[in-house]
Each structure stands twice: as structure tokens, then as C-alpha cells.
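Q: How would the C-alpha cells look for this protein?
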Amino acid sequence: MKECGTTTMAETVLGIVTDRNPVGPALKDYKALNLAFDRLSTMREAETILRAHIGRLPGLTEAVVHALMADPVREPDALRAWPTIPRAYLGGLLAGQIKPRFDNRLAPRCPIDGVKTPLKSCDAFLAFRWAELLSHVRVGFMGHPLRPLTSEELKALDDGIRKTGRYTKGNFIKAVHDLITCDHDNLEALLSTPDAEQMLVRYPGLAQLDATFGIENFRQDDDAQKALRRLSHRLAKGKAILRADLLPLLVKVKPAKGKKAPADRLSAPLPSGRAPYSERVMRQAVAEIFAGKAPRTEGGVLYRDATKEDPLLEADIDRATNNHLVRHRIKILLRLLGDIVHDYAENNPARIGNLFVEVARDIKDFSGKKKKEKVPTTQPLIVYCHCVENAFLRLKAWRSIGPRYAKRLPSFTAFVHLACAHIWLARI
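A: Here is the predicted structure in C-alpha cell form.
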């Protein structure tokens, strides 16, 4: 803003894009410049624009502007009366935010029943992820609106994935079209997400064998299929198997066309992290989806009343995070804030308008830096470190200085001066 001589974000962007000419050609793409603007000034600018259009835009009133621009610090309960806004939301719709929950260090507890959540590599989460994908599929025919899949259609698709353990995007779209007569659907948009390929994997061990050898290349007799299931279960548990164990089960030793030659040891990629819900809740949600119900609607296992407070948000800091460093620092900060309110505000938090926390300069300079990056900052002092350390080492050799036998400061200082003079004279 200083370089452009402007005071608002709109004027700055207009000057960059059109050189202050609203109908002229664009000079630069301002999004490629990676610009950043102060949040407070941007919010004030947006509020000014909204208030200028009160009475001009239909439905825009003072109450609507307040609901959009309420400050999350000064007016955290601005939308508390709205039944569809969760209680964890602070401030207005545009300027507000969800109450922080230490997302990177949350205690792994299910928000439904409070039970510890399992790993994402467990079978319950893989089934839940697959069922969630199927519940979002919508199909339509002859101009009719899109509809979800029926219970029979869901089970037919689930039976198809049990053969190979996975679908590719093309195979999944083909399976849906072969099963259901439709002329429009949402499959392209649904499978355009980056994790769509992972969501189409139901049995990771079997999927890895299919991707490496091709399921059609394994023998179909009972003994071979039993051994194949045992090895796929081993892969699904995160363990590796030997290629030599698979060769007797193959009809063709060479991999299928288009597939790379397998390595001596095979392992299946598994999802990492914690599941969002407990194992019982996820299995119940899968049962409801395949029964044709929506688990997130009222009466479903995943339904949560937005007007009720999340128990994890109001929990004690010891339960909210399992990182001892975060827990310790936040406890110190809370205790510091309490002391400030008690000593300077007569124990009345309403008297405090803004609070600024200054960080020591050395913490700013050294935080996150490596040793090589810190050396240039302290280079003038490092030159004298060796000299000072050697001086103290020589002074400790004097019996009266190390234990400090002298009780009075003048006597101790005199002994130090004599020792330093002796050291200096001995070097001449």
C-alpha cells in the first residue's frame, strides 16, 4: 500500500491490475504476486463497503452487516442465537472463526462416544471410507433430479470390489453405468479430489496383489484362494511378504501386461493417522449407509446437535492436547494472563481492551535457525569465547578462588586481581 500510495486493498489491486483505469487492459495478475493485506484493515474496508450499500441492496440491513462482520474477540457470541451455528464458532460469518482445537495434537477421542479412535489402517475405517464414497454418488435419468443409490445398488457395488480389493476411477464409473441406467451423474466431480484413488481402495492387501500381478493370474482352486487370502491379510496389517510365496499361486509367473516386474518383497500402502470416529461408531455408520439411511441426519449415529458444545473444546488443557510442550506453555500463558488481570485490572477482564505479548529479540533471532545460520549473528562474540573460557579455567586452578575462601567481596576481588596479574606475568 505504501508503494502504491493507497489506503485500501481495493485501490491497491485496482492500481496493479488496471493502472487506475477500470476499463483499461490488465497490467499484471495480482494473484501471482503473492500479496498479503492486514486483516484488520481489510475487515474494516469490507464493513465500510457493506454499510455504504444498506438500503441499496435488497435485504441488506444493519443486522445482516453485524452478523457478517462481528469481531471474534470483542463479540464472540454474536451468532449464539442462531440454531444452525455451532457453539464453537466465534464472531461473525465473514470475520469469525472456529475456536482453536490444537488440530495437530488433539487427543484421539471419538466426538460421539468419547472412545479412543483407532488407526486409519484398520478395517473399520476402510469400510467407513468406502461407504462414505458410495453415499455421495448421485445418478439421474431422463431429466429426473439426481438421486442416491438404493440399498441393492450399494450392495452390488460392494460385491464387485471384493473381487479385486479396489476400483480404478474408470472401472468404478463403468461399474456404476453397467449397474444403473442413467444419463447424468456426479461421478466426475466426485472422483476429481486428490484422495479419490485412495477412497476406491477397500482391501489394501488384495488391491496391491491385483496391481502387481493381476487377480486373474492366480489359480482359482480352493487351496490357492485360501493362501491368497492369508497373504492379503498379512499385507493389510502392514507386513511384507516374499515374492517366492506368491509364485506357486500364479498361473502365469510373469506379471500382467502393462505391470512392472514385482520386487522380492511386497508391501501395501496403508493410510496413516487416526480415524475420525471409534470403531463401533464407524461400523454402525456403514450399516446405516448400506441400509439406505443417512448417518449424519437426525437419528443417525453421526448426527451431532450444532447447538451443543463440543466436549473436547471445553475440556481441561491436559485432555485437549497430548503434547507436553504445548500443554506446559499454554498453562504458563494462562497463569500469566490471570496474574495480569488480577494485578492491573482489579480482577475484571472487561477492563482489558487489547493485550500485546512481546517476544525477546534473541528468541526471534535464534528460533528455527540452524547452527550455521546462528554463527554470523554472534560472530563478534565467538572470537572471545575461547579466551574467556581459558581465563576462567586458569583462575580455578587457584585454591582460594575456586571454593571462594574469602568471605568479603574486596578480599575475593583482590585475590582475582593477583591471580590475573600472575597469569599475565607468566605469559611474558
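The chain has a mean pLDDT of 79.

Residues 371-427 form one domain.

Upvote if useful.
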